[in-house]
Automatic annotation (TrEMBL):
<feature type="transmembrane region" description="Helical">
    <location>
        <begin position="430"/>
        <end position="452"/>
    </location>
</feature>
<dbReference type="Pfam" id="PF04597">
    <property type="entry name" value="Ribophorin_I"/>
</dbReference>
<comment type="pathway">
    <text>Protein modification; protein glycosylation.</text>
</comment>
<keyword id="KW-0812">Transmembrane</keyword>
<dbReference type="GO" id="GO:0018279">
    <property type="term" value="P:protein N-linked glycosylation via asparagine"/>
</dbReference>
<dbReference type="GO" id="GO:0008250">
    <property type="term" value="C:oligosaccharyltransferase complex"/>
</dbReference>
<comment type="function">
    <text>Subunit of the oligosaccharyl transferase (OST) complex that catalyzes the initial transfer of a defined glycan (Glc(3)Man(9)GlcNAc(2) in eukaryotes) from the lipid carrier dolichol-pyrophosphate to an asparagine residue within an Asn-X-Ser/Thr consensus motif in nascent polypeptide chains, the first step in protein N-glycosylation. N-glycosylation occurs cotranslationally and the complex associates with the Sec61 complex at the channel-forming translocon complex that mediates protein translocation across the endoplasmic reticulum (ER). All subunits are required for a maximal enzyme activity.</text>
</comment>
<keyword id="KW-0732">Signal</keyword>
<keyword id="KW-0472">Membrane</keyword>
<comment type="similarity">
    <text>Belongs to the OST1 family.</text>
</comment>
<keyword id="KW-0256">Endoplasmic reticulum</keyword>
<keyword id="KW-1133">Transmembrane helix</keyword>
<comment type="subunit">
    <text>Component of the oligosaccharyltransferase (OST) complex.</text>
</comment>
<protein>
    <recommendedName>
        <fullName>Dolichyl-diphosphooligosaccharide--protein glycosyltransferase subunit 1</fullName>
    </recommendedName>
</protein>
<dbReference type="InterPro" id="IPR007676">
    <property type="entry name" value="Ribophorin_I"/>
</dbReference>
Amino acid sequence: KQQAANLNLGRVADKQAMGSLSLRASLGLFLVAISAAEWINSEITRTIDAKEHVVRIKTEYVLNGGKGEYLVAYPAEFADRIAYIAAEAGKGKDIPISQKEIKDGLVFFSTDLGTSKLLTVSAVIVNPFEMLPAEITQQEPQFVVYEDTELVPSPYPTETQTTKLKLPSKNTLSVQPEEDKRSGATLTFGPHDNTAALAAGAFGSLRAHFMNNFPAAVAHDVFREIEVSHWGNVAVEELYEVRHAGARLKGGFSRIDFMQKRLRESPAFTALTARIPAEARGIYYRDQIGNVSSSDIRPAAVAGQIELEIRPRFPLFGGWKTEWYQGWNLPSEAGLTRSEGGRYTLTADFGIPFKDVWVEDHQVKVILPEGATDIEVRVPFEVEEGRSSRATYLDTPLMGGRPIVTLRKLNVVREHNRPFTVSYTFRPHYMLHEPLVCVAFFAALFALAILLGRVDLRLTRGGGAAG
């Protein structure tokens, strides 16, 4: 009996061992399958453009091995400073990309590549520099420090990668690590071969200290109003608060020195150029004092646009700021279209017309005619949206006032200057509302005048005629 029991125990142990081996084999095959489906970066080419006061990073991936979701990583310090990010699969096919999570010192963005093996990701980083020194005199150039990763952070292994750093000039104080190749103001790092999937701290650091005199014009707030009238006009007005975000001016300002040396490179700026529709009429540029006559309008190189050059009353150095408002009128046909069934669509650009200014807080208000209903808004990127109404002259509580669509977005850059649309339903007879209000007002006024003309205000004594 004891031998039989031992034999049975041995058989059970053999079955358990075979089951364990089978489980391990299955798990191994599963891991191999996962590994086979994992992405491999065959080649990564990163181009960092640091010529302006924002940094544009374009990263091109040539991939192998996987399909579906692909994760793109940046240093976690960039998470709040990535103003714009876009992805292309293959050659020019835009695909959605969105932030997924922040962990291990990296911020991850997710995109679905399907079966494509080519990916291009473009990102715009705001507040990318440290001013060093933080203060400069009127005659000194501006030097900045840019920090990034030496290697492109990625959760996948990379066979080879190269980074190019484009600077505004050859004047560099230090670059760490030393570049592998220099061509004018372009520094090349790499190629680096066979880098493993990277975790925090494993991708090294890149630090460049160089001269950058590009005017750091930053708009703290921009309020833009677009008022639609079906009487043939679309009015646009923009309110700006702009500061110079570069190295602060040390010492006093000398107008004489500035005029004598204004041809030299300087981080200060004296003018900003906006591109507005060629149909614009009644253009104005004013500040708190009044009309600013130091502006100019000229044809633009782009068809259908004109250039509005504005010149503040004083040049702006680091730490200085100015405020102004500008506006113009457009004919309705320049941006308003009508479809069947009384459906109207307004098309306008979301961003500001100044390509060298980025905005910290941008608000766009679209004021529609009284009586507009079934409002739909389409914006090509994520924004905060609000609805309200307001009553102006000739509006009545019966109609509910003029509908207002408010769009808000933080950190707006040049790439956000894309068209958005506001569609609504408006019945033609609503246009008679305001004229009828005017007619009713004057009719009541005339009726009151006639009534008062028939009233006898003379005083009588004892019921007889006066006097």
